[in-house]
Design goal:
heterodimer, A: 262 residues, alpha+beta, four-stranded antiparallel β-sheet, three-stranded antiparallel β-sheet, 19 strands, 22% helix, 28% strand, B: 254 residues, flagellum (chain A), bacterial flagellum (chain A), cell projection (chain A), FlgG_G_neg (chain A)
Chain lengths: 262, 254
């Protein structure tokens, strides 16, 4: 009985849907987090009688066919890359990107990863690093005992070094963009890596060529909307229940067949 | 007398298929742009035996079989996603998708951009514009899809709109002739021509949810199981009647 299996695919799909939603909710306070949505498609159909087939010797054509579907499949969990709201922190090394682009981060194996999480810090050598200690690219070192770190909209970092009254530029934080940023691969720790789907990384300067600008002293909040997530969660739970009811209906029908002529 | 079993079975088989249809609808309750299917039944009359076996024609018995499933093209509710690449279609139109097997049609407007900058469906097939695939440049930003399907972007630092194409929207004289292919796609059979749709409007930032009505599906499901059980009980009674008859008739004192 096909209904049993169709309903089972429905239950599996809703289970995954709940997983995606719960991960969104779990990350509703994660800086720079981008929410995901489960996308579903119908499975192939069994064309018991194909529409347009000959219905009789006289050449009559079936105006509608008998198509029985096999359930549902998950085609992907695309990420919604919309801008999150900026919240001021007052911290000099917190940077939010307003618009396109990702910060480029060097991870311990020497390769690059990308993030929208701009909550940076300084390590023992004065380098600007992420919360995990991975340096921002290109590497920026803040001289010892310097004060008044300023990062402008283009990402230029200037400081006041001891014994001087004029700001000195110590580097520029770059941005990277992708033609299909939804195709980036999340590796945890708020980091993404490029994939064949995302296209090659294009490095550039903030506030030029379509890149976003940098907002010092701000962090980008997750773009999760709790109300949407909770209503989606309720819908997913109900959909799961309904699929379970179809399973028990199919079961009941098979039972009544099994009990015939005993 | 034996016909009752066959009539009952013909109905039970159609009920089983009807539950398959309901199950597929329920499974796709969260599928973007999904359209529910309905079953249609018809009575067909058949003589249990050929008339040339008898002097008079045998009485014809009424069976049931499923004639068709038809697609319910009622619009599904729109959900706001704020994703610039999501489009919901107001009206009867379909988006045109280029697949390896040819042009296919879909109501699923959850679109993406692939690594070549092409506008594609969630499964990666290019969505066609009025003049072929729609391709974005790496520096494009602020993608805007107008109600008539025109796609404009801001190019790099520019502040004027650059046109990237226009979504091709089509409809069909008889959409029932479309065949569901799975993957949210429909194909048009022979002699079914897609014609440009000029009245449909697209809404950016929305997706069309499945039009499956859970209350309808659940009540239909209950009706199916009840009917099925009733027929089983009826066949059981018929069987008991047979058995009693055989036992009674065999119980002739020697």
């Amino acid at each position: 009985m096909r209904a049993l299996y169709s309903a089972a695919t429905g239950m599996a799909a809703q289970e995954l849907n709940v997983q995606v939603i719960s991960n969104n909710i779990a990350n509703m306070r994660t800086t720079g987090y981008k929410k995901q949505r489960a996308a579903f498609q119908d499975l192939i159909y069994d064309h018991v009688r194909r529409v347009g087939a000959q219905a009789s010797d006289q050449g009559t054509i079936l105006p509608v066919g008998v198509d029985i579907g096999g359930g549902v499949k998950t085609v992907g969990t695309p990420r919604l890359m919309s801008q999150g709201t900026l919240s001021p922190t007052g911290n000099d090394l917190d940077i939010a990107i307003r618009g396109e682009g990702f910060f480029k981060i060097q991870v311990p194996d020497g390769t690059y990863a990308y993030t929208r999480d701009g909550s940076f810090m300084m390590d023992a050598q004065g380098r600007v690093v992420t919360a995990q200690g991975n340096p921002v690219q290109p590497t920026i070192t803040i001289p010892q005992n310097s004060s008044q770190i300023t990062i402008n909209a283009q990402g230029q970092v200037t400081v006041i070094v001891p014994g001087s009254t004029t700001p000195t530029q110590v580097g520029q934080i770059g941005l990277t963009r992708f033609i299909n940023k939804a195709g980036l691969n999340p590796i945890g720790d708020n980091l993404f890596t490029d994939t064949p789907a995302s296209g090659t990384p294009q490095d550039g300067v903030a506030n030029t060529d379509g890149f976003g600008d940098m907002q010092q002293g701000n962090l980008e909040q997750a773009n999760v909307e709790v109300v949407t997530e909770i209503s989606d969660l309720i819908a997913a739970q109900r959909a799961y229940e309904m699929n379970a009811k179809v399973v028990s209906a199919a079961d009941q029908m098979m039972q009544s067949t099994a009990n015939m002529f005993r | 007398m034996e016909n009752m079993l066959l009539v009952g079975l013909s109905r039970q088989m159609t009920l089983e298929r009807q539950l398959d249809v309901v199950a597929n609808n329920v499974a796709n309750i969260n599928t973007t742009g999904f359209k529910a299917d309905r079953s249609l039944f018809e009575e067909y009359l058949r003589s249990p035996a050929h008339e040339d076996n008898f002097v008079h024609a045998d009485r014809r018995v009424s069976f049931v079989h499923d004639r068709a499933t038809f697609h319910d093209f009622a619009p599904g509710p729109s959900e706001q996603t704020k994703n610039p690449l999501d489009v919901a279609i107001d009206g009867n139109a379909f988006l045109v998708v280029q697949t390896a097997a040819g042009e296919r049609y879909t109501r699923d407007g959850g679109l993406q951009i692939n690594n070549q900058g092409q506008l594609v469906t969630a499964s990666g097939d290019p969505v066609l514009g009025t003049s072929g695939p729609i391709v974005f440049q790496p520096t494009d930003k602020a993608i805007n899809i107008a109600a008539d399907g025109n796609i404009t972007v801001l190019e790099g630092t520019g502040s004027t709109d650059a046109v990237r194409g226009k979504l091709r929207l089509v409809n069909f004289a008889d959409a029932q002739k479309l065949v569901k292919e799975g993957g949210n796609l429909y194909s048009a059979g022979q002699g079914v021509a897609a014609q440009p749709d000029t009245t449909a409007r697209v809404r950016q930032g929305f997706i069309e949810k499945s039009n499956v009505n859970s209350v309808h599906e659940m009540s239909r499901m209950i009706e199916i199981t009840r009917t099925y059980t009733q027929i089983s009980a009826m066949l059981q009674q018929q069987h008991d009647l047979h058995r009693t008859a055989v036992e009674k008739l065999a119980d002739v004192p020697a």
